[in-house]
Amino acid sequence: GVAVGASLQDRVSRALAPVGTIQDVLPAAGGFRYYSVTPSVDRRTAASYRLRVGGLVERPRTFRMADLARLRPTALTRDFQCVTGWRVADVRWAGVALPDLLDAVGVAPRARAVRFTSFDGVYTESLTLEQARRRDVLVATRMEDGPVTHDHGGPVRLYVAPMYGYKSLKWLDGIELTDEVEPGYWEERGYDIDAWVGRSNGRDDVPT
Questions:
Q1: Is the residue at 37 inside a domain?
Q2: Does pLDDT of 2 surpass 80?
Q3: Nearest to 8 by CA among 173, 174, 124, 166
Q4: How many domains are contained in the chain?
Q5: Is residue 120 part of a domain?
Q6: 18 falls in which pLDDT band (50, 70, 90)?
Q7: What is the mean pLDDT of the chain?
Q8: Rounded CA gap, 70 and 51, in Å?
Q9: Entry pTM
Q10: Could you tell me if 10 and 189 are in contact, meaning their C-beta atoms sit under 8 angstroms apart?
Q11: CA distances from 88 to 15, 35, 79, 97, 208 (A)
């Protein structure tokens, strides 16, 4: 794909530089590059993990791993495309389709968007409710036929198949239904809010 525009590319390069609070862990197995926006992230086990779902919902709820496992399982194999240019083909993902999780709590009529938070305490992301209702958006509990590892954002992370990787928030611990889209961590630093692969951020990558 083509490089992003000059001003945005400068911001991207500064944000991903391995200095300050941005940690860039390279190289990595399977072609992935690991990014974190904090110096360190506490580990959570499957036993200690909790996912809070609230905001404009009818039945706010906190999910344990066992609760997620009881929901309808969804699996898909799709590429992972980073906005900085690298891509990993045919990644196997599994977990709960976000629409099924939203149905479990009941979306209030006023809800128009979904906000996601990370237990790193900094990273946030958002989708419109229409985007969140896609069945290729997962609350992922498995990756490459095993649990999602800590470095990959586990034990539970978001995977937004048709969008650039920064939308696939790592270390997911909160989902909040809101009445409007709230720009996330990377959007506040210059990335597009609607991050469709090949149709945003000045790039022409093949869609995922």
A1: no
A2: no
A3: 166
A4: 1
A5: yes
A6: very low
A7: 87
A8: 14
A9: 0.86
A10: no
A11: 21, 15, 6, 21, 10
* DSSP result, 54-119: EESBSS-EEE-HHHHHHSPEEEEEEEEE-TTS-EEEEEEEEEEEHHHHHHHH-B-TT--EEEEEET
Segment 198-207, tens digit of pLDDT: 999 999 999 9
Q: In the predicted model, is pLDDT for residue 79 greater than 90?
A: yes
Expressed as residue numbers, the domain containing 109 is 42-189
The CATH number given to whatever domain includes residue 65 is: 3.90.420.10
Nearest to 162 by CA among 107, 100, 205: 205
CA distances from 34 to 26, 100, 187 (A): 7, 28, 19
Residue 29 domain-assigned (yes or no): no
Is the torsion defined by CA of 28, 185, 128, 66 positive or negative?
Answer: positive
Query: pLDDT per residue over 139-196, tens digit each?
Result: 999 999 999 999 999 999 999 999 999 999 999 999 999 999 999 999 999 999 999 9
Give the pLDDT band of residue 5 (cuts 50, 70, 90).
very low
Find the largest Cα–Cα distance for the chain: 47
Q: Is residue 10 part of a domain?
A: no
